Amino acid sequence: MLKLSWTMTLRDWRAGELRFLIVALALAVASLSAVQFFSARMGAALERDAHQLLGADLRVNAEAPIDAALRERALHFGLRAADTIELQSMAIAGEGAAAHTRMVALKAVSPGYPLRGKLLLRDGRAASAPAPGTAWVDASLLAQLQLHMGAQIRLGERRFTIAAVIAREPDRGPAALAIAPRVMIAMADLEPSGLLQPGAIAGYSLLLSGDADQQARYTAWFKTAAPKGMDLDTLASSNAATSEALGRAQQFLSLIGLLSAMLASVAVAMAARRFMLRHLDACAMLRCLGMPHARVTTLFALELLLVGLAGSALGVALGYGAHFLLLDWLGTLVGGELAPLSWLPAVRGIAVGVLLLAGFGLPPLLQMRAIPHNRLLRREAAAPRALTLAGAGIGVTAFGALLVWQAGDPLVGALAAAAFGIGLAGFSGVAWAALRCLRWLPAALERGVWRLALADMRRNPGAAIVRVVALALGLMALLLLTVVRGDLLTAWNNTAPSDAPNHAIFNIQPEQRVAIAARLQAHGQPQLYPSSNGRLLALNGKPLSAAGVADERAKRLIERYVDVSSTGQLAVTDTLVQGRWFAPGGGAPELSVSEGTAKALAIKLGDVVTIDFAGQTVSAPVTSVRKIDWRSRRPVFSFILNPVAARGLPASYLAALHVPAQDGAFIDSLTQDYPNLTIIDIGAVLAQFQRVLDQVSAAVQFLFLFTLASGLLVLYITLASSQDERTRQAAVLRALGASRAQLARAQWLEFAVTGALAGLLAAGGATAAGWALARFAFKLEWHFSPVLWLAGLLAGALCALAGGWAGLRAVLNHAPLQSLRTH
């Protein structure tokens, strides 16, 4: 049986009978395998390098200098320790008018850093901490400031000699997400630089390393005795957070792959049905020669298995090649070196292919098995029997299980299945209604070529709906990621006026306020906002604790410092939603809270909030709740005190201003005169965000190309499945006087109508999604885009014309007499 099945498989391959099945399986497996290979390699790399994510075994994080007691207790337990402090600062290269400045991510490290992993320099050395007076930098900083090894840069009040270029930093996040290049100095050089001014935003870390027992003892002590506002990261927690982020990305990409697989499964089912219908003669011959039902079924099942293995192997190969593109686009966002290749995704891919073919290819085989000899010879199909229906149910169930498996969560899988079902039902309903409307076309279109073009769509509405919906799904995804995404980003950028702030200045000290305000007058006299770092202590006299709080934002507000400002006037970018603004000249403390913060902490009007400012406690009732416009690019604060309540609080100042591109020397001059300032180029940050978004969009668009290819394959197979019937119809029409040119025009018109309808459906779906995103996600004003509908119409027509020509190009090449004799 195996030998005979192999012989039949080779014969069918030479005859071109298997190409539909193999291509459909290859597309389904390729879309899923690409994601599986990418996720497996990145996940293995994270697991391999887990000990380097912290640069230690344990890491204590804080927003203020870490209490010496934590270090002493760690040393008492036998742990090794090292310190790091990170902050944003300005690096200055050159003197006078020739000076250039750049914002850098400054990191001061103590001797012994890192405790785990390796800090690699570009010359191949594994190093610890820079020598005093020297700095190690990213290569990008050398290019931006046009520096060379041995050159000097100024950080605050100190000058540093560039001694090395950093190649790899173990505990740093992905470089693609960094908004500023790294500069690393010795811990002893940080205080003399004068950068740690009061109010400076810095991150403090205590790195610890030791054996498992030492780590466990310190972790247990930390949970009970550590001061408020400090976090303890372990290898497990850090790896879990990174793995969760990667898992969510994999889940999203897998669902995209499943959309392709779903359409490819439709193609598999149609191709399997076509394959069986074209083998009725062979089946009848074998049955007439005495081969039992079971052996005939086994023979064709073995052939399907061989086809499934071949198609799945091809899909795995395509997915393996495709995952390199995903690594190129998304690998830099995850960080780390690649792990060795695992063959598990290949095994999964082949299993998925065989499962899909078994689920969607066996029902036609079981249906053919139940047909009697004489009906086989007459090519008559019988009504589906219970076994056939059970096979189809198994196929649907198998695909549902595959959906849940790929999603990684039963609830997410069920929601995805529901979304797919609703989308398919909606598109199918609209396509059915559009086909029904064809009956009401004007009489002028019911003649000649138009009548021929629409005849098949009316006779076989089911096949026409399948073609339209399959093509529309793939096009909608691509339109959403191209035209709609571009429109949303343009609308978001347009929300800010042309003179909106493009630079933010932090860490302005009280003694510098007047002088800097005078310097800023040339750029619109921007307001200087006081900012004080405080900790939330109590609400209505009840101490606030993050224990048992589920909301992540509420946890951060309770555990970390909050920025509190003070003003007597409501900002033009804020809108009161509850309460009243501060009374002019009021003598009692008052507090205004942003709407999101009030919701997270369940704060209501009249509640008394207690905030600690470096030992100075302020309690004030909430008299107003504000809605903040985060798109204004101006400083916004969750908490604002009235001037009476803020009197005497330690504060630094910040400002936002618009600096024209041709006036870049102003920022360089300001940084030279006030080296403690941190100036963030908002435009550069937004450009970095745009680059990351483009990378992610490119990867998602690439996966959706599999979806479009699957849709085109469905279109192609539905047309090819009717090729024999269309050939006979063309021969009859030719015999009745229709010319070859008329029939060709009719075919092209049918393809154009199919594609145009699919394109309009895709544009409608993308428009609805764009409206929902603009209205509910981005809070933007939505505008109708005729470009989207035109793009959908043209793209759908072109895709359908290409697929239709490929599927039916041989119909008109048959001589009418030969076709009539054959049929």
Written overview of the protein:
The chain has 823 residues and is of the alpha+beta class. 55% of the residues lie in helices and 17% in strands. It contains 25 helices and 22 strands. A six-stranded mixed barrel has the order 2-3-9-6-8-7. Strand 4 and strand 5 (126-127) form a beta hairpin. The longest helix has 43 residues, at 235-277. The mean pLDDT is 82.
Estimated share of beta-strand residues: 15-25%
Number of helices: 25
C-alpha-based Rg, rounded: 34 Å
Major sheet summary line: 6 strands, mixed, barrel
Strand elements, count:
22
Helix content: 55-70%
> What is the structural class?
alpha+beta
- Give the terminus-to-terminus CA distance: 33 Å
- Order of neighbouring strands in the sheet with most strands: 2-3-9-6-8-7
Low-confidence segments, given as residue ranges, are none
Overall residue-averaged pLDDT value: 82
User: What would you call the shape?
Assistant: elongated
